[in-house]
Specification:
By secondary structure, the chain is of the alpha/beta class. The mean pLDDT is 94. The structure holds adenosine-5'-diphosphate (ADP). Adenosine-5'-diphosphate binds next to helix 3 and helix 4. Adenosine-5'-diphosphate (ADP) binds next to helix 3 and helix 4.
C-alpha cells in the first residue's frame, strides 16, 4: 500500500509518498499562480493507491482526484508531527501565510490549537517581505541576523508599517544586520506569545518552512526557554501527516 499526502500551501506545494512506515519520496515546489498545474507536475511519475490532501488550496483537488480525502492543516500537521517525532507535545508551525500552535495529548492526539491566519506578522511572509526591503535574499537575511551583535527593535506589528519602518531605519544608517536581527526577534516574540497561550509542554517541535530558518529557531528557544526540536525536512510534516491519514483510511476500509 502506497499512500500520498499533498499539502497545497500558500507558498509551496509539498508531496510525500509513504509505503508502510517508510517515507519513499518527498517533493517541494513553489505554489506560484497555478497551484493545480504545480500539483500535477509534482505528482508526475509517482504511483500511489490513496491520497489525502490539505493546505490553503486543498479544495482545488477535492473531486478532481478519485478517492482523495481532504483534512484541515491542523489535523495534517498534528498527524505528521506525532508520527515523525513521537515525543512531541507542542508544535509550532510557521508557514508562508499563517502560524499555528498545536497541543498533543500523551497519546499523540490533537488536544488544543491556536492559529494566526489573519495577519502576516509572525509568518514566513513577514520575513520574506523584510528580506526584500533590506535588499537580501532569504538566506543572506538569515545569515545577517545570525551574525549581528546587536538588534535594532522593530516597533510596528503590521507588515506594511514594519516595511516602511525598516526602509526609514536604513535611510538613517542603521546597519542591515541589526535590523535583520530585530525583525527575526519580533517574529520569535510573537511565536513565544502564541505558545504561552497553549500552554507549552515539552517536546516542542518547530515545523513548516519557517523552521528551516536557523536564526528564528534559536531565538524561539531563547524566548520560550524551551529546547526547540527540528526535523531534517520540517516543511513536509503536513504532507507526511496526510499520507499517514491516507494509510489509516485504507486500513479502516
Ligand atoms: P506554506 O505551507 O504556507 O506554503 P511553507 O511551510 O512552505 O508555507 O513555508 C514558507 C516559508 O518558509 C517562507 O515564507 C519562508 O519564510 C520560509 N522558508 C522556506 N525555506 C526557507 C529557508 N531555506 N530558510 C529560511 N526560511 C525559509
Amino acid at each position: 500500500m502506497r499512500a500520498a499526502g499533498l499539502d497545497v500551501g500558500s507558498t509551496t506545494v509539498k508531496i510525500a509518498i509513504l509505503e508502510g512506515d517508510e517515507i519513499k519520496t518527498t517533493r517541494v515546489a513553489p505554489t506560484g499562480y497555478d497551484p493545480m498545474g504545480v500539483c500535477n507536475e509534482l505528482l508526475e511519475g509517482l504511483s500511489y493507491d490513496r491520497m489525502t490532501v490539505t493546505g490553503y488550496g486543498r479544495h482545488l483537488l477535492s473531486g478532481k482526484i478519485p478517492d482523495c480525502e481532504v483534512v484541515t492543516e491542523i489535523r495534517a500537521v498534528a498527524m505528521g508531527a506525532a508520527w515523525m517525532h513521537p515525543a512531541c507535545r507542542t508544535i509550532l508551525d510557521i508557514g508562508g501565510q499563517d502560524a499555528k500552535v498545536i497541543s498533543l495529548d500523551s497519546r499523540g492526539r490533537l488536544s488544543k490549537f491556536q492559529m494566526n491566519d489573519k495577519c502576516a506578522a509572525g509568518t514566513g511572509r513577514f520575513l520574506d517581505v523584510m528580506a526584500v526591503a533590506l535588499g537580501y535574499t532569504l538566506s543572506e537575511f538569515v545569515d545577517a541576523a545570525g551574525t549581528a551583535q546587536t538588534s535594532s527593535k522593530i516597533n510596528s506589528m503590521c507588515t506594511v508599517f514594519a516595511e516602511s519602518e525598516v526602509i526609514s531605519e536604513v535611510a538613517r544608517g542603521t546597519p542591515r544586520e541589526e535590523l535583520s536581527l530585530g525583525i527575526h526577534r519580533s517574529v520569535a516574540e510573537r511565536s513565544a506569545a502564541m505558545l504561552r497561550r497553549i500552554p507549552l509542554e515539552d517536546d516542542l517541535l518547530f515545523c513548516g518552512g519557517g523552521a528551516r530558518n536557523s536564526c528564528l529557531a534559536a531565538l524561539i528557544e531563547e524566548h520560550t526557554e524551551h529546547r526547540v526540536h527540528r526535523l531534517p525536512d520540517p516543511q513536509v510534516v503536513a504532507a507526511v501527516g496526510c499520507a499517514r491519514h491516507a494509510l489509516k483510511m485504507s486500513s479502516n476500509s
